[in-house]
Structures are given as C-alpha cells and as structure tokens.
Amino acid sequence: MEHQHHGFVPTLGIASPDAGESQLAVSLEIVNFVQVSAVYGVDAALQVATELTRRIAVLGVQVEIAPGGARINLLAAVPRAVAQDRRDDQVAMFLEDLLVALSLDPVVTGQGEIVPVLHILGWCFAGTDGPRGDVSLDDLCAQFLEESGAARTCALQVVGFSAAACAQYRDDMRVAASLVRQARKGELFLAWQAIATDARHQDESDHAYLYSEGLLRGVSPRGDFTALGEAVASLERLGLVRVLDRHLVLQTIERLRANPLEVLGCNISAQSALLDVWWSTVVSHLEADPGLARRLVIEITETATLPDISLSVAFCDRLKSLGCRIAIDDFGTGHAAFRTLLTLRPDIIKIDAIFLNRALLSEYGAEFEAFRHLIGLAMSFAAHVVVEGIETSAGLALARKAGACSFQGYHIGTPGLSARRDQPYLEGFGVEEPAATDLGPWGGTGRARGRGLGHIPVGTFPTSQRLAHGVLYGTLLALPMWYGAYGFVSWLAG
User: Which of 85, 176, 219, 432 is least surrounded by Cβ atoms within 10 Å, i.e. has the fewest?
Assistant: First the structure.
C-alpha cells in the first residue's frame, strides 16, 4: 500500500485486524517521564502516558502502558504485503508520522501543558494473529527489546531537582508548548541570508553565492518577525529540538521544490543529527529528487553535544550519498572538536563571528594570527570555509587578509523572506541553470562563467588536490604552529 501523509495523521492501512493483515508490535518510550514526574508530579506524568495511549487507540490500534509508565506498547494491523516484503521504509514512515502527531500536540494537565519527548525503542512483525494467547503484548515487546539490547522498562526514579532547576524546566516547557503549536499552525518562518564567496582575488567585488541560510523567525503579537534563538535553546534543554528541526528541513525542501534555481541551507541541532525514523520522510523526498538534494545544505549547530557519534556519522554519510552538503555551524564556540571534523567530514566549516571580532580588536596582533591559523586549519578539513559575522567593510577586509574567501553577515546581505538572486550561485554548487552555453569541467553554467567563475576558487579543489593542499598548508604551518596554538589557547582562556 502506498504511504501517504494527511496532515499529522499517521497512515499505513492501520485498522482493526482483518484476515489479510499482519500485526506490527511497537515499543514507544516517553523519554522525559522521569523529569516530568520530578517537576510536575507522578500523577501528571501518568496523565501524559494515559492521554498518549488514548490518542493512539483512536487509530484503532491495541495499546497499553507498560509497567512503570514510561513505555507504551502498541499492536497495529498493517497490510500483509508490508510484512512479507519487509517494507521497513513504510514502517519507519508510519512510526515517524506517529511520533510527529503525538509530539505536536501538548498534553494538557492540571500542572500545565506538557510536550512528551518520544523515542521508538523497537518494533517487530508479530504475524497475522499477533502474540500467542499465552504471550502478552508487553512480553512480546520485552522479548524483541532484549534481543536488540534496548531496555525493557524505564523504572520510575524521581530525581531531586532543585527549585531553580524545576522553575527552568517549567519555563522551557511553556516555551516548547508554544513553539510546537506554532509549528503545527504553520506560524514559523525561515528568513534567508546569503553566503557570498569571492570569485577572483584579483577583483574582490566580483563574487558569487554559495547558498542562502534559513534563519528561524516567529511572528510577534504586533506582527513583526522575531528571532527564536532562546526558544530553540529551550527545546535543546528539554530534548525536543528534533520536532522543530524536522519541520524546518521539510519546509526548506518545499521551498527548493518551488524554486529550482535556489541553493538553501537549514540549521539543525547536533541532537537531531541521528539517522533514525525521524528523518524517514526527508530521506524519501531526497531519494526521489537528486537534483533537489544537491541544492540542500544541512548545517549542524553544536550548541549541544552529538548524542551518538556512530549514528551521526551514518546521518551525514546518508545525506551526502543523496547529494546534500554538510556544514558545521558556529565552529570554535560549541562542542565541535577537530575529532568531530575528522569523523563527520563536513563539506563546509563556518567559523563563529567571535573570532573575527577578537581579531578586529587586536589590530592584526596575536588574535589575528590565531584567527588566520584557524582559517588555515579549517581549510584542511573542508572544501569551503565561511567566516560569519561580516558586519562592516573592515571585517570583510580583515577576513580576506586572514585567508578566507567565503563570508556571511549583514554587510553581505540582510535576512529576508526571499533568497538573494542578484548574483549567481558558485559554479558547481548544486544549481544547473537553463540555457547554459559553456559547462566547464566542474559543472558550472554559462551564466556563472559569464560572471567570471570559470576558474576553481580556493576551497573548491577536487578531493585529491584538496588533500595535497591540506598537506602543503600543514607543512607551511609546522614552524609557527606552537606559537599559534599557544596564542589560540591563551585567547580562549582570556
């Protein structure tokens, strides 16, 4: 049966069991059950679990709360062909829809609105008749969870939160409830800010765009667009940011589909960089349209740590295999380390604005040298290095002097609801424009070449040349490296 999406209602032929259907057993964990118990009380946590089972049961699915309250087991009827053909992709999309449907509708309790943090522990096909009469649904789920190494239950251990921690959790939850409601209503927007790259160092006024980054915006009561950075931080603290990130990536994909000449980037938290059912629909869209995938940049912002490095590597490798590019955002201030760069192998590294600002204050002193070394090292890890925070012509000039050739900031362009198109995109960076008259060796277009992009800018070498460039650059940096490292550490310590 073809999988379809209808709003937030999961569809996979779910219905009461018939002769032509198989049974799908699923174990769903309420990840924040213990935290909700500690902050709002055990009764509130159990009310969340009870309400979730009620919503699932409306679909005609057998559902029960496992002992302890933190896990929900369900048994759903699916078309027999899905089980016989092992259509794991269809099952994953059904589970994704289920998670989204439950996550985007806060549970109203006597203590306030609560958004559950949900995770699929595991699932298995249970045959046409479901579990045997002497085997309960909980025993069946416990069996496949044990075989997969997942925990059978999450025993209730109420942690002693301080009064300040409880207040912070409640504040974050209020923000989360408001944000997911806005996402459900379509009230969240992305404002697009261009990232420019020099075409020729001989003529620095001649540049192209790498892509436009989507910056999250909400709407104030007065109708103004407002930044939502603090709200995203609340979602990260709660473990709920994946709901938002999935929503925004899908929004970006829809814009790419409607605007075939744009190259766009979308930020996700490091907490979301995991290859699992949450990304099933995104992967499906990208598989169906490789040309669109080549115009999508996923920026990983490491304001939080990567929860599972192996799943993060699988996530990046999968998206890159589909044609997407991976960027590490705000490098140097988050949790990203050089080991992360070696492991994830990003295409783009974006250096946080703080390094440029410190270099500007130093008037080409020690901080400038550290900034220059950081750019050089980043160029050995990625094809493109972007300096963020270009707010003035002086900042742009200093970034160029330090060796950078890609830039982002208000001096380059202010965020807007439309992506910039007054300059072409960099040759070979995803866009294949019509009526190209001269396709050079790197896949560029006639229009781009007409703007002086027929050469290969710094940072866009083929892999073998880029590796040689990295080795050469590392050799040149060998002598001053100790000084640079010392200055860099002293800078951060200061």
Answer: 85
